[in-house]
Amino acid sequence: MNSTAKVLPAILVVEDEPLIRMEAVDMIEDAGFRVYDAANADAALVLMELHEDIGILFTDIDMPGSMDGMELATHVRNVWPPVAIVIASGKVDFADMQVPEGSTFFPKPYPTEKIAPILEHIVDRLKISSPPLNKPHD
Amino acid sequence: MTDRDVSSGTHVPPAELTATVAILAPRGRDAAVAAQLLQEANLPVVVAETLDHLANLLADQVGAVLVTEEALSSPGTDRLTDVLDIQPPWSDIPFIVLANQGVGRRSDAAVARIDTLRNATLLSRPLHAEELVRAVTSALNARARQHDARRYVEKLELRERQLQDSEAKFHAIADAVDQMIWSTQPDGFHDYYNQRWYDFTGVPEGCTDGDAWNGMFHPDDQERAWGAWRESLKTGQPYEIEYRLKHKSGKYRWVLGRAQPMRDMSGNITRWYGSCTDIHDIKVAQEQRQLMLGEMNHRVKNTLAMVHAMVSQTLRQADTLDDARIAIQSRISMMSAAHDRLVKSTWTETQIAEVVEAALIPHRTGLGRIGVTGPNLPIGSKQALALTMALHELATNATKYGALSTDQGRIDIAWHVSQEDADAGFAFSWRESGGPEVMTPTRRGFGSRMIERALAGYFTGAAELAYNRGGLTFNLTAPLSGLTV
Question: Does the ipTM surpass 0.90?
């Protein structure tokens, strides 16, 4: 994939609550991004492998399955270092959590009007790094 | 009078008698002469008529005895020796024996008779007044000293008894209270633990003396407890700390440790007294409450997030603000009613037939236009809420545009279960018929999007809306496990 100024990276939304996932997908699509979605970490990792255009991981923290959102974020950071990470949580004590460095945090429910500008800001930052965005790190 | 009576002090002889000399001189005038001489010297005297009488006076703790040697050889001395034998340890009644006149050498028997008196002095006759008075005075004084010694011993004994009583009382209290109690020397050396400590820890008595108590603490708490204790020893400030103490079962239990110093008149610490209270159950209950609050918080947040998603979606797709207001109110009421039913059941599960009935109640006309068939099945809380929302959207749509918007239309709802088909063991359908001709909508509203995109997710299955001309149909297929995941 070529990095031209007009091409936005795809975003992978990971959220176990279908209604909230649907809302997150709509919201991010409205901001002009291509969106993939997964209900858990295992499905998310399959999508990460399949789609090289994923540039941002947008994940909830509390999720059932083999990994929660925090573990998924850490794993993605290790395997695909260039992928930006956005973490959303309803938890208030976010400051105490071990989040991968450089992650962005959103409280839940999502602050709709802030999502688009923040995602665009992340995209600007990503452009400094070289594509493809999610090429595995050896 | 017995030994026990004297030492216990229940029978104290009259003061006069203990300072009185008894005289036994049955023959001749010796008794009368001696009595007169002694009375002239202001010494109290009692004259005994017989050996038996004298024995009674001895038993009553007479001060001293003046007796003639010949009186001792008369029959009845056995009782006298009996009384002397049972004297309490402090008592040794002094005897002054008026020797027989003209005795060159005493027979062995005569010597033995005098020896049985134990504390006997011989005084020769004829009586010499000064000798007699001095001998008796000295005997009475010695006897008074014996009583002084008795009183002193009794006082010491009383003190010891009081100390024992007080210690017994302390142990009774210390071992009866629910807490473990301990005490240390001023430098913090542990030298006392109550029975509760040993009951709790199960360690042999004495093995936690000194500093060994720290080994009973959870390894993660040892350093912290040491630090706090050292700080208290240094500053004299009360010690208070929560830590895990090893129970005899091998498990650690949370206890609250507290200690206070005891000081002398000049403010120096003489001892430390401490206690450990088992607060494990309270601590665990606190943790459970915290966990429960966390779970409640999570559910409330999740519910609010769902409401947020619903409102956001409704607003995005509504034509007018009025439409959005009505839709939001009706959707929130429906979600609230669905929650009520979950709370009334076990919260985690409810029955599918109840969920379907409850969702349809607001739309029933009483004309039997909605048919429902299907077995009753347990269904999870999330699936129940999602199904309620979907049915609400379908029924609202049917009332506005579909089968329930005319007099002839009807809706048939059916679900069934198939044990053979693992991936689609549960099938649910909604069929409208007899309504106006159905047109495929040009734009998807919240209801159809929710049904097509979210509902299937809750059941980990597939959902499909079909805009057939004769009537709208909706099908949901899911694995049986999807009903309660």
Answer: no
